[in-house]
Design brief:
Blueprint lengths: L6 H8 L5 H28 L6 E10 L1 H12 L3 E7 L5 H12 L2 H4 L16 H10 L1 H6 L15 H15 L3 E7 L7 H15 L11 E7 L8 H15 L11 E3 L1
Parallel strand pairs: 1-2, 1-5, 2-3, 3-4
């Protein structure tokens, strides 16, 4: 369900009726994560009522808003071991600030420099910032060091590593992610995801500080493609799913494990 800030939405915000930014995060993105957690808790009773199998690994896939939710499922739900995000974004604040800029929202433009007062404004209230810092991948992992705006351009310090390591282990240890973006996507532009993804790639590189986390990140940009899922994306998705499902997993309990 692709959505963007439109002129009508900008007009609504001027009249104090703009709930788009928090509706999108709370209901359509994080709400999907909550629903997924409930589904995983109850579905074994329906499909394996005699406990003939144990579901040991879960994979999610989402497009657009579902892509945002796939990232959140991966970092917030320990039972999710793999995820595919298609034209989604792991950095909600950066994405929404970009849309506010493009829509010329007063809460973005009426500050110096533009955007400096957007977080905490009526369009992006402090409570929403707190929620993003609790559940969003970039927001939750980097919130305690986000004041260091150069974090994306340098190596982490020893002190920062102590803060980041438990979060990274909880979010990414022994997991897999396929992130696919359209190079010409104007709705969820890749440049909104790129800083966090590049930072993450450096962390998990062979000489990176999280190289032993066994986290696989495939980040693919399809040049010339807009906000859509293409046939080439579907082929990459199929290959990733097959590779993930055929990967060896340790036994779960005393019953035969199943992948879901």
């Amino acid at each position: 369900m692709p959505m963007a800030l439109t002129p009508a939405l900008a007009d609504a915000s001027k009249h104090g009726t703009n709930c788009f930014l928090y509706d999108q995060f709370m209901e359509r993105t994080h709400g999907t994560v909550v629903d997924t957690a409930h589904l995983m808790a109850y579905i074994p009773s329906y499909i394996f009522p005699q406990e003939e199998h144990k579901i040991s690994n879960n994979m999610v896939c989402g497009v657009s808003l579902g892509g945002h939710a796939a990232w959140q499922c991966l970092v917030n739900l320990p039972a999710i071991t793999a995820a595919i995000s298609i034209v989604g974004c792991p950095d909600y604040i950066r994405l929404m600030m970009d849309r506010a800029r493009l829509s010329k929202l007063a809460t973005y433009e009426d500050s110096s420099p533009p955007g400096s007062s957007f977080l905490g404004s009526q369009d992006f209230p402090r409570a929403l910032v707190d929620a993003v810092e609790s559940y969003d991948p970039a927001g939750s992992i980097l919130c305690r060091i986000s004041a260091n705006t150069d974090i994306f351009d340098r190596d982490v310090t020893a002190t920062e590593k102590q803060i980041l390591l438990p979060k990274m282990q909880r979010s990414f240890q022994n997991k897999r992610m396929l992130n696919m973006s359209g190079g010409a996507d104007k709705l969820v532009a890749y440049h909104c995801s790129q800083p966090f993804l590049q930072w993450l790639k450096r962390a998990i590189a062979p000489c990176g500080w999280f190289s032993d986390g066994d986290f696989l990140l495939q980040d693919i940009v399809f040049e010339g493609l807009g906000h859509e899922m293409s046939t080439d994306m579907a082929r990459k998705l199929d290959a990733f799913v097959i590779e993930t499902l055929t990967k060896s997993y340790p036994p779960y309990g005393g019953s035969k494990p199943s992948n879901l």
